[in-house]
Amino acid sequence: MTISWQDVPVERYLNWALTLSEIEYSRLEAALALLPCNLIDAHTHVCRYGDIQTLSGSLMSHVVSTFPVFTFDMAARARSVLWPGKQFRSARMAHAICGYRHEAINDYLLRELPKGDLLVWFGLPSSPQAVIQSMERGEAVALKMYFHSVEPPLIKVRDIFPDPILKVATRLGIPIILHLPTALPDELGEVTETAQRHPGLNIMLAHLGGHGGQGWTPRIKGAYAELRDLPNVFMDTAFIWDANLIREAVNALGCERLLFGTDEPLSLIRATGYHHARLGPRLYAPDYHWTTDDDVPSTVTGQTPVLLHIQMVEAIVEAVSGDRNALKSIFHDNAQLLFSTSKQRVAPMAPQLNGQAPMNTAATASQSDLISVVIPTYNHAKFLLTAVASVQAQSYRNFEIIVVDDGSTDGTLEVLRKCYQDEVHYIWQPNRGLAAARNTGLRACRGQYIVFLDADDRLLPHHFEVSLRAIRQFPDVAFVCGNLRTFGLCEDFQHVHACEPSPDHYASLLRGCFIVNVGTCLFRRDTLVEVGGFEEGLSACEDWNLFLRIVRQNQMHCHHEIVMEYQRRPGQMSQEGGRMFASAYTVLSSERNHFTRVEAYLSAYRVGIQSVVKYYGDEAVADLGSLLKRMELRKAWSLFVKLAHWYPRGLLGRRLAENFTKGGGDHLCM
Q1: Exposed/middle/buried for 669, CB within 10 Å: 0-12, 13-18, 19+?
Q2: Gap between the terminal Cα atoms of the chain
Q3: Could you give the 3-state DSSP secondary structure of residue 93?
Q4: Dist. CA 79–CA 264, nearest whole Å
Q5: pLDDT for residue 139
Q6: What is the CA radius of gyration of the chain?
Q7: What is the pLDDT of residue 411?
Q8: How far is residue 370's CA from residue 645's CA, in Å, rounded to a whole number?
């Protein structure tokens, strides 16, 4: 049968889709009961009749031809039926197929986008300047480009998203939505290379990295595992109804990197998914013009097709076993955070706490002066409330608090819920270390300025006021920092660093990290994004590494006021000599590549080595002995190589032999 797009019975298909059977209504109601009140659909489409030029014959035999037209009025009708009682918003983009007038649909989106919905700009790689201009105008929360938007289709990520466009998207904090030309296992190298080449760019893989409608395969498990270490890669669930596939993505990436999407209007199809022996994943949908399969198993034809929208929602609920926190992340929080990195901020639906809107929500905060506070925590629930309280006590009131739980097992979420409820944005991730937790928080920030506070430390009430005054006074600096005092273990003291009248901060940092704690700093968010955040390969000294990478190309300023309190207690990372020595070695050694014959920097570098040896050398030798005693030979060898390079005479002393035979002692105070 030959059919043109003008002959597709769009209205009949839509009316049928929105007339739910009793069973469908019951299933939808049960799923909605588990979902949060506020929802974001991160992947939807629109277009009008006048926006279609021509559609190919091959497309007309495909499921996507069911709704060649889908206007905002149609979307509103669907929303009223499928999301009763929910505050709902959609991220809308042009239909992504060659044959549509994409520029006209972008104009339609700009003029007619319903209040609360989010604009995703559709760009063509053949018009990079036009795409860049649209991003610079700050009109959209994300950028979508597509390999089938031109003929012949594009086949490489670089062709779909040229580097000049990605560089601008990275600079502006605009995430991209990437629909891969083929399945993720075949495109994994392309995704990895793109994510690593642009570490500050957030990438959302449409359809869990596939074309939509795909199911779980053994190959996909390995591909998802490879994405685990790419923190700037996210995925949406658009047009996915296989709970096993979604569960695999959750297991690999955690709930915080998945976004709910429907691919509406494709979700408004009544069909049964199955695996065809010859053709692979298919849909049995006998009442549509594009259905052509002639050897569908009787076990499939005997079922009554169910609206795919319902199946998609149910699949996510099943994949996370109905966990309400996970569902809140996937159906709302993750989209709000990802899209709020762009110029057009996504204001939350101001949550209520005891009948009052909580302080410092985006609905009340001025974005230009908003300070985002990132508090990473790992089994520090007993300290966390004090840290949060120190932020709440700030004299400057325009801030947001983001707590990143790095896989805690001590009831951190329950502690926060009990005391702060909606005043703190909580993100959970599998344990990946301090640097990764800080980067997760950075991606979630909406503020122009960023403060990182460890969960066992606390800020003094004037931190934000003093720091903001300083960074406004010096508009060319990337960050400002101050001083601190300690509390807890050992004798408390105040750390005060002094800078030269005309300091070369890069040389100063090579000599040693005079900024004792990152919590004394106020950063410009743009700078952190530009340098790619914290180095997640470091187990310590990641803040020193960050300072060096920033100050190589930027200025900083020290205002010298005491703005935070640092807790000294047993078991802190800074008291693990071997770990600190190894990380400091990595930081300085990598920095050595950035200067060659500049004597001032070479001299500062040598002083830095001496400082590392002085503070951590003997403790590192002691830890090496402990590692040998415990037969942790790989770690021991790695530490031995670094000690042999920088502190060979330490290996000849008695400390190594003593700790190899006795196992070493506790290292409490440095």
Answers
A1: exposed
A2: 81
A3: strand
A4: 11
A5: 85
A6: 27
A7: 85
A8: 46
